[in-house]
Amino acid sequence: MTSAGATTAVDRFRELSDGDPEIQAHGRYFSCTYLLDMIEHRFLVRMHRGEVEELVTDPGPLEPYDFAIRAGRETWEGFCSEVPPPMCHGIWSATFQRDMTLEGNHLVIMQNLRVLTRQLELLRITGPLG
């Protein structure tokens, strides 16, 4: 994916997330920072009260975050497809059966699980961010 393509997917993800009725209904307390370690890039997502406050492509190594979601190319491509293949349909199945890892503060993940899950489902519209 080209840089322009990655930027377009990132912008589209932000737009969909900020405009999603479910995220807005349940995201009042969704304030955290997390890292998506995707195919060619890493993305730092800063959420504040259910809205994307900042989305940083390839943040520096000292940028703080609450938790990270990491996976290889095959897992992200499956996870981000319109109809995900078996074991790529959610973060738990991808973690238990594939190479996805959830690192960092698991309490923050669990406190925000419904909104985070919905936000990650939006990747099925945008495709992998990078």
UniProtKB/TrEMBL annotation:
Q: What is this protein called?
A: SCP-2 sterol transfer family protein
Species classification: Bacteria, Bacillati, Actinomycetota, Actinomycetes, Pseudonocardiales
